[in-house]
Amino acid sequence: MDERMKELIAIGVSVGVHCQPCLDFHLGKARDLGIGEDEIKEAVEVGHMVEKGALNAMRKHVSLVLNKVQTQGGACCPGDKSRCCS
Questions:
Q1: What pLDDT shows up at residue 73?
Q2: CA dihedral 68, 70, 73, 75 (to 10 degrees)
Q3: 3-class DSSP state for residue 14?
Q4: Does residue 11 contact residue 4 with C-beta atoms inside 8 Å?
Q5: Whole-angstrom Cα distance, residue 19 to residue 8?
Q6: How large is the greatest C-alpha to C-alpha distance in the chain, in angstroms?
Q7: Residues 6 or more apart whose Cβ sits within 8 Å of residue 78
Q8: Which residues of the chain register pLDDT less than 70?
Q9: Are 74 and 83 in contact (CB under 8 A)?
């Protein structure tokens, strides 16, 4: 994989994980490599798509966990298996 592709991936990942310092760093490297703004914007959009998918998955997971807590009458705590949701 060439450096251009690595930086475009890093830009998308930075957006997806909300790492602002990472995004600034990788945008600088991408521009230093001569990557155009259109490609950078596309990488940012891919990061937003991943971010949106992760957000939707987390919302569903939270809903499931909260429903289990309500039906089992206790809090979910990984350190206390007697009160675990699963």
A1: 59
A2: 70
A3: helix
A4: no
A5: 15
A6: 57
A7: 84
A8: 69-86
A9: yes
- The pLDDT of residue 77 is 61
Joined together, the tokens standing for residue 26 give 């990788």
Secondary structure (DSSP) of 26-86: HHHHHHHTT--HHHHHHHHHHHHHHHHHHHHHHHHHHHHHHHHHHHHTS---TT-GGG---
Question: Is residue 7 exposed (0-12), middle (13-18) or buried (19+ Cβ within 10 Å)?
Answer: buried
DSSP state of 4: H
CB-based contact 8:15 (threshold 8 Å) = no
Token readout for 28 is 């600088």
- Say what the pTM is: 0.72
pLDDT score of 67 = 86
Q: Which residue has the tokens 């995004």?
A: 23
